[in-house]
Amino acid sequence: MENELAIVARGLRKTYGENVAVAGVDLEVRRGEVFALLGPNGAGKTTTVEILEGYRRRDAGEVSVLGSDPAAPAADWRNRIGIVLQGLGEFDELSVSELVHHFAGFYADADDPEKVIARVGLAGKARARTHTLSGGQRRRLDVALGIIGRPELLFLDEPTTGFDPEARREFWDLIRDLAAAGTTIVLTTHYLDEAEALADRVGVIADGRLIEVAVPEHLGNRQQAHATVSWRTPEGVVESAETATPTDLVTELAARFGGEVPGLTVTRPTLEDVYLRMIGHR
Length: 282
Ligand SMILES: Nc1ncnc2c1ncn2[C@@H]1O[C@H](COP(=O)(O)OP(=O)(O)OP(=O)(O)O)[C@@H](O)[C@H]1O
Known about the structure:
The chain is of the alpha/beta class. It contains eight helices and twelve strands. It folds into two domains: 2-221, P-loop containing nucleotide triphosphate hydrolases (Rossmann fold, 3-Layer(aba) Sandwich); 225-278. The strands form three sheets. Strands 5-6-7-3-8-9 form a six-stranded mixed sheet, sandwiched between helices. It has a three-stranded antiparallel sheet with strand order 2-1-4, with helices on one face. Strands 11-10-12 form a three-stranded antiparallel sheet, covered by helices on one side. Helix 2 (96-104) packs across helix 3 (113-119). It is globular, with a radius of gyration of 23 Å.
């Protein structure tokens, strides 16, 4: 049902001269979903997202975003979408609070600026001039400007680049809050842990093609992958075996050792392992 889908793209294509940036992408994002686009540099993520945002023209394909074609949207369409832009240099002399209030003025039903400032963790910086913010604080301000209009659909292009680990965790909590409140979120990221932590589904783009869409646990048949069981022999040598039935092997080892197995670990391929395999690095 179109209604349950925030985004539908069919055969999306964009070329720059000889260079095919997006080579026929089919994509569906459900309402309320957090969808992450992963892919190496130059894969076509930003081009895809900017077409969906209405900032780039496609060469071919059908696109519907919140029921409108982004190339010719309905009158209130842009108000229903949040876009996290970077680098609003001309507003450098405004304070955080002034800038967020200024942006709130663009929307008929904007959120409370002070609440949004607190929500992105900038309450202590509300009076600071924006040019005095650190890179990570600046990015939080970008997010505040993206959500001030209470968007139904929020686009975030590499939102946590430059964040320290604590800021990333706080940002993830913010994204989860927004998702819990029903906001559909499309984000691009290079961080696999971020995709795994946030996304309901992940789409992997390589060379302008969407090569797989899956929930993070299922990406690249990760769940079917063999587990690696490692242990230490009485001589102190670390041995390991790949197996489809790790429980059997561990049970056998436990019997062999008469209880606790020294140095026992059971691992499966990480999201990073399967991702690198998918995009061709082995
Ligand atoms: N305005 C442009 N003019 C010409 N080529 C472009 C333009 N924008 C993007 N491209 C090319 O299109 C391809 C896809 O770029 P895009 O920015 O969509 O990739 P990306 O997946 O977002 O990469 P990154 O992870 O590095 O941000 C690249 O080969 C890029 O060089």
